[in-house]
Amino acid sequence: MTGQADRTDDTGGTGRTDSTGAGAGRFARWKAAFDERKAVAARYALLPLRIFLGVTFVYAGLDKLTDPAFFADTGSGSIGETMRGVRDSSAIPALVDLALKNPTGFGYAIAFGEIAVGIGTLIGLYARLAALGGALISLSLWLTVSWQVNPYYLGNDLAYLMSWLPLVLAGASVLSVDRFLAERRRIR
């Protein structure tokens, strides 16, 4: 014959659970589910940053390519005029002088560089290299075009530079061509 005490071993007849009973099992399952979700969130944590930087850099490159005034040596909105305007206030005037030797070529290099970096970041192809390219573009723009912004934190190029650094370090571990190719090599 089974008595009340046999049916209530886990609760002691009170309906409450102790740390060794069913409550501990529920807590362990809850903690395991929480830890699993936390691990998934950690794997995908850099994906929003990748999407933002990738889209922004593709857009910036295309914006330059579709603006005929940008590639002119002189005139409002031209790369040449922008470089001459920041030459004396930049951190590295020699870099600006180099750009001024061929402003149109420099403008095309920046535009195509931004598009390549943006696409590489979005699809995760050579993601660390793409992020390094983005960081170098941002660094060069910070040291030239936005160096004179005061206070410094109002200039966006420094913020972009800092945003690229986690992707330089971590790469694109999810939803990326790099990941696909790595898994394919592992299968062989």
What would you note in describing this structure?
By secondary structure, this protein is mainly α. It has 9 helices and no strands. It has helices at 4-7, 22-44, 47-65, 79-86, 93-101, 103-123, 127-144, 156-170, 177-187. Helix content is 68%, strand content 0%. Helix 4 (79-86) runs antiparallel to helix 5 and helix 7 (127-144) packs antiparallel against helix 8. It is elongated and about 80 Å long.
Short structural description:
With 188 residues, the protein is mostly helical.
* Helix and strand pattern: HHHHHHHHH
- Rounded mean pLDDT is 89
Strand percentage, roughly?
under 5%
Structural class designation: mainly alpha
Name the poorly predicted regions.
3-14
C-alpha end-to-end distance: 62 Å
